């Protein structure tokens, strides 16, 4: 098994957001955007997007347990991490925390204009600045977790991919193809399994051109419950070192 500590962006949601953030930074010309196909008018797609819109309109918090699998084709190896993820709306902004408990303790916080990853084992915080692309970063981060269906259509061509039962839950499958050519070079497409009652994804899979993929499974999902403010703070020490790969 690969050592998960060797890669900064091991969290599927943050992997997606950070890589897309990098792609946005490189894209300078509007001509680099792929032509946008019209979304399907299928009744099933319309229904689930409307449910996601309703969830987004009333969204305050979401929390869930997760199992994240990262598959690397070249070595035919899967790295698995477990923990709990938290989202909350703070004013007009979203804050997110991933509390990773297995195999190694890590804590990832997205708040303000920064993403911070704390590794207690080495007592270090790695800090990233989302810069001018914060809004775009946030929109990808809440994909399937409080983001609206209409916002999703701005960045993806979305198609209805049928229904499937996941861990006893009836879900609607959506296939997302990035409209940005740069983003598509990172992720060819993304599949979301949405609980139609909650308007929240219970499973997500991100497919890369290389054949690698990231599969995220969520359970014990709680929407609009109380989450302590302390959850959205790093539990550092007086000796914690902070580094920034962005300089």
**Strands ordered across the widest β-sheet:** 7-8-9-10-11-1-2-3-4-5-6-12
The N- to C-terminal Cα distance equals 31 Å
Query: Please, how many helices?
Result: 5
What is the CATH C-level name?
Mainly Beta
Low-confidence spans: pLDDT under 50, at least 5 residues? 1-13, 15-41
Structural class: alpha+beta
In one word, what is the shape? Answer: globular
Name the CATH superfamily classification.
Lipoprotein localisation LolA/LolB/LppX
Q: What percentage of residues falls in helices of 4 or more residues?
A: 10-25%
Number of strands: 12
Q: What's the story with the biggest beta sheet?
A: 12 strands, mixed
Identify the quaternary structure here: single chain
If you had to describe this structure to a student in words, what would you say it looks like?
- This protein has a single domain, classed as outer membrane lipoprotein receptor (LolB), chain A (Clam), CATH 2.50.20.
- Helix content is 20%, strand content 42%.
- It is built from 5 helices and 12 strands.
- A 12-stranded mixed beta sheet has the order 7-8-9-10-11-1-2-3-4-5-6-12.
- Helix 1 runs antiparallel to helix 3.
- It is globular and about 55 Å long.
Summarize the SSE layout with pairings.
Elements: H1 12-26, H2 43-58, E1 61-72, E2 77-90, E3 93-102, E4 106-111, E5 114-119, E6 124-129, H3 134-141, H4 149-155, E7 156-166, E8 169-178, H5 181-184, E9 189-195, E10 200-207, E11 213-223, E12 241-243
Parallel strand pairs: 6-12
Antiparallel strand pairs: 1-2, 1-11, 2-3, 3-4, 4-5, 5-6, 7-8, 8-9, 9-10, 10-11
Helix pairs in contact: 1-3
